[in-house]
Amino acid sequence: MKKILLLWLGLLFVGVGFFISCKQSDSQKNKESILKGTTTILVDETVKPLIEDQIAVFESTYKAKIILEAKSEKELIQSLLKDTSSVVIMSRELNADELKFFEKVKIKPKTTKFASDAIALISNKKELDTLIAMKDVVAFLKGENQTRVKGLVFDNPNSSTVRYFTTLAGVKEVPKEGVYSFKSNEEVVKFVAENEGMIGVIGVNWLLQPTANINEYLTNINVLDVEGLNKNSYFAPSQNNLAEGTYPLARDLFIINCQGYSGLGMGFASFLAGEIGQRVVLKSGLLPVTIPGRKILIKNKLK
Fold first, then answer.
1. Residue 276: CB partners within 8 Å, gap ≥ 6?
2. Residue 200: helix, strand or coil by DSSP?
3. Are residues 204 and 240 in contact, defined by beta-carbon separation less than 8 angstroms?
4. Residue 141: enclosing H or E segment and its boundaries?
């Protein structure tokens, strides 16, 4: 009799637990959908101004609240794998090891490319030479003797720009001497504006949409034209050169959604890739994946 009673109590607890779980799941779905609710999105700090604009337009259109956190690329991945946030915006897709992690937890990440970005190289205004060849930058990163590059300034040692340049140079890490790193692109601009001989490495988005902190230093820097490896022409990090594929330090931007359900991550990704989101990219000075169309109204009579 006692065993039967314990069995019934066990079944009762299981049933209650399942009921509560279903209620919590339903509650979560009611709180968030693709166009409403609240979620946190992590963004690569080098493209923060663009995503701030996108969120402002998205929130003004839908009943949604997006909390934006800007971090370095390595910090983004760590947060994604620790489930601190399930949606990230960065300049690369997930690698094989990262995809395997999500396979184990039965989640298939959805990756959406929505823009092309550029890494800009800047120097102090007192420097007369406004051209730089990538072969000189690569030589500096490899520790070879050459005079054009005396020092590189990055926004963060864990930044996507550091990863981009070490990959390009084929080195595991940047040199210990002559390389400086801070916590933001704003600090890079300030440092270069105040120090001659340094070359700053930043996301061009910060120059196209400068904050008040950056504005006061822009008159003291040059944006350098860059010659690619095995090339003999120099190009500026402009929207036109991104479109023509001539700027050598171009990269794609992706939103990666690992929510595993139809939430704001899906809605915001669709927004970025949609007409309004692509217009915001175009206005920012970066290159959208699809160029928004322009409607021309022809009138037969003038009023």
1. 57, 61
2. strand
3. no
4. helix 134-141
Edge-to-edge strand ranges of the sheet holding 225-227: 131-133, 225-227, 234-235
Residue 124 token pair: 């102090």
Distance CA 97, CA 162 (A): 20
Q: What letter represents residue 201's amino acid?
A: V
- Give residue-wise pLDDT tens across range 267-298: 999 999 999 999 999 999 999 999 876 655 55
CA–CA distance, 209 with 286 (Å, rounded to integer): 10
Query: Counting Cβ atoms within 10 Å, is residue 13 exposed (0-12), middle (13-18) or buried (19+)?
Result: exposed
Averaged pLDDT score across all residues of the chain: 87
Note whether 223 and 207 are within 8 A (CB). yes
Residue 35, number of CB atoms within 10 A of its CB: 17
pLDDT at 22: 40
Which domains occur in the chain, in start order? 34-116+252-288 (3.40.190.10), 117-251 (3.40.190.10)
Contacts of 154 by beta carbon, 8 Å cutoff, 6+ apart: 161, 162, 174, 179, 180, 181, 182, 188, 201
Encoded amino acid at 13, one letter? F
pLDDT tens digit sequence for 36-49: 999 999 999 999 99
Burial of 49 (0-12, 13-18, 19+ CB in 10 A): buried
* Three-state secondary structure call for residue 42: strand
